[in-house]
Design a protein that fits this description.
By secondary structure, the chain is of the alpha+beta class. Helices cover 40% and strands 23% of the residues. The chain has helices at residues 5-19, 24-38, 63-68, 109-113, 157-176, 194-197, 199-202, 204-212, 214-233, 248-254, 264-272, 342-345, 348-365, 370-379, 383-397, 405-409, and strands at residues 42-44, 47-62, 76-83, 87-88, 93-105, 115-123, 136-138, 143-149, 185-188, 237-241, 285-294, 322-329, 334-341. The chain is globular and about 65 Å long. It starts with a helix and ends in a 5-residue tail after the last helix.
């Protein structure tokens, strides 16, 4: 597929006409106003959905100084989960397989070898029993896996098997390996399974599953117990979110004023970006916010007045609330969100140590912390590996993957 020069120029001209209607400086000014005047606290439907932990402020740190500072936590562990992606087969089964891995800084080779693997399967025939089983050990005891049969749904089968595989593998591995973490555990992503919690707003059938079916609820319970385990040990647990899709703040702001941003990440990027006299972005410093408590969107169920989708909490419900702060790295124009349960961020010394650790890591790596990057590398299943696993599963199922015209059109790996 190619564009002739005349077509290319025509598209660019259309985009130029659109850009003339947008005043970006106005967005910067409004972001300033929202940050300073709306977030202390932010109200929505009569609830305080966002409020600062400590003082409302924006800060900056020289990127080089941040990278060279001593790590507040002597060791760091990262954890990630990757999947082969949901696959539908001609025998009516929909399958996704996830593996979770933990990495350490400094490295621990035995730890890096360990895996937790979950294969979640959905059958379009509600009478089919796919043989759900308990955990089995393989790889000489380093790893373990299990089959999980997804609850029957009439739509969103792929979303269901994906979420259950991904999050069950992640939380199982985190809990299994929790004792090796002495100083800090960083999850690659949010601290709670937001892909599952989002079911409540996605479709009534998915919302009912959260309330009525024990399988997604068991996964959420695993994360609640993970928070309890780390809180009891006094070891901070945080989540490093590379691509936050939250729209909770922008939605609440739109109740009062126009909000020109696509999502909360775009708002915080505007609020944290520094410019010189010519309007160019200054790249010498990382900028970051104070910590906030979040009780809106998918964070609402685990708030102090949320119902935790029926999961029992052993500690004060306020301990489980999501707190977060945002880091903006102007060198690559990237915004990151760091989350932690409130039980770890009430103490000013602890939350400052967490912030400095993550700022150090981002400054040094120009991206996710090294522990997270290593875990991502361990857990990721490559395109070639996904294709090979797909062929192996076809043989075991004695059925082929459902293929579409797009598989031929885009040359997907067979």
């Amino acid at each position: 597929m190619t564009l002739d020069p005349v077509h290319f120029d025509g598209i660019a001209q259309l985009a130029g006409r659109i850009s003339q209607q947008v005043d970006a400086t106005d967005h910067d000014s409004f972001a300033e106003t929202v940050f300073e005047e709306f977030l202390d606290p932010l109200w929505y439907d009569g609830r305080r959905v966002i409020e600062p932990v400590g003082e409302l402020r924006r800060r900056r740190i020289d990127a080089e100084d941040a990278a060279l500072q001593e790590a507040p936590f002597p060791t760091q562990h990262g954890l990630d989960s990757g999947t082969i992606n949901p696959t539908t087969f001609t025998n009516g089964l929909v399958l996704d397989v996830a593996q979770a891995a933990m990495a350490a800084v400094p490295s621990e080779l035995d730890l890096h070898r360990a895996r937790s693997v979950v294969a979640t399967v959905h059958s379009n025939d509600a009478t089919v029993d796919c043989g759900e089983d308990d955990w089995t050990v393989f790889d000489g005891g380093y790893s373990r896996g299990r089959i999980l049969q997804a609850p029957h749904v009439n739509r969103y089968e792929e979303a269901v098997v994906h979420a259950l595989s991904l999050y069950l593998a992640e939380v199982t591995h985190a809990r299994t390996q929790s004792e090796v973490v002495d100083d800090l555990l960083i999850l690659d992503g949010p601290i709670y399974p937001k892909g599952l919690l989002a079911w409540a707003d996605r479709h009534p059938e998915l919302a009912d599953l959260l309330i009525e079916d024990e399988r997604p609820r068991d996964v959420i319970e695993g994360y609640v117990e993970l928070v309890e385990t780390f809180a009891d040990r006094g070891v901070p647990l945080v989540g490093f979110v590379k691509n936050s899709a939250s729209k909770a703040i922008t939605r609440a702001v739109r109740n009062k004023e126009r909000a020109p941003w696509v999502d909360d990440g775009a708002f915080f990027e505007r609020a944290l970006r520094r410019t010189d006299d010519e309007g160019e972005t200054r790249t010498d410093c990382l900028t970051f916010t104070n910590w906030f408590v979040s009780r809106c969107g998918v964070d609402e169920p685990l708030s102090a007045d949320g119902d935790a989708v029926g999961v029992e909490r052993e500690r004060d419900p306020a301990d489980y609330e999501v707190t977060f702060f945002c880091i903006y790295d102007p060198r690559d124009e990237l915004l990151f969100r760091v989350e932690a349960p409130a039980v770890f961020t009430r103490d000013e010394t602890t939350r400052e140590a967490i912030a400095m650790q993550l700022l150090r890591d981002v400054a040094h790596e120009r991206g996710p912390p090294l522990a997270v990057a290593k875990a991502d590398e361990l857990a990721r299943i490559s395109r070639e590996e996904k294709a090979a696993l797909g062929r192996a599963i076809e043989e075991r199922f004695d059925a082929e993957r459902d293929r579409s015209y797009d598989d031929e059109r885009w040359g997907l790996v067979a």
